[in-house]
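Action item from last week, closing it out:
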Amino acid sequence: MLENKLMIFRKQYRMQILGALTIQIIIFAHGFSTGCMSPIVEIIQSPKTPLSFSVTVEEISWISAMFGFGFLAGTILFAVTINRFRRKFNLYILPIPHMLFWVLAYFVQNIDYLYAGRFLAGVTGGGLLQITPIFQSEILNKNIRGAIMSSGTLFLSGGAVTGFVLPSILNYHVIPCIGLLFSIVFLIALYFFPETPQSLLRSNNILEAKAAFDFYNGLKSEKASETVQSEFEELSRNILNGDSSQPITIDDFLTKSALKKWNKWRRLNLSFNVIFSEDAQKTRNEFNDDAEVLKHVTKQ
């Protein structure tokens, strides 16, 4: 058991962990941009606002809503581009809307700057859900994948806490500079990591895929590479022959096993409906009794 716990510290996984930690930079940056909005909103609504214009409560509501619209747009955008382009290309364009948000926040002249900025920040947020889990899952070995990928929530929360604290102690125009710095560091760090082997195999770049596989597995000598040659060959077969798999049809949902599970779900759902219906009926009866008592008291 101790060996399994220390598996994450093996030299074989060093570049995989560094690559995954690079992804956590942009996740931290997104958490930072999300957390800082609450204190910034309070600052720009105060009499000592650093902006040249006032902001109403209705405009604040629209600033929050624009993030949701951007998040939806980002989810759709990166769902389209994630398989049309390579993983690293998607990661390169991921922080661009985020950086534009901070530029608009720094040079803000009217409320439209903040609307557009929050929309762009939401685009990056939607893209994070699409590309970052896939990139990490493709470079991480299955033995450490769960432990490393679960740290994303920690970095997101850490960024939110940092964003919540710093605007209270720093000047307004310093915050966008810090937010831009996170994205710049992410782009620089990402440059030193190759494309994922899976993405290269889908483009039929076998030699580049093998080099990327060796990089992420810490293999430099030909002898060391032979020890995991079978693993790469299996990966290649799965990717290159993936198009030959049988598509899902309606008959797959009409098998004996599927119908049996459907019947179990239907009975369970019916049981919950009966329980909640009885509770709802009891609540209605109690409410009617209370209403009758209140009506009688008011008449007196």
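Closing note: The chain has a mean pLDDT of 80.
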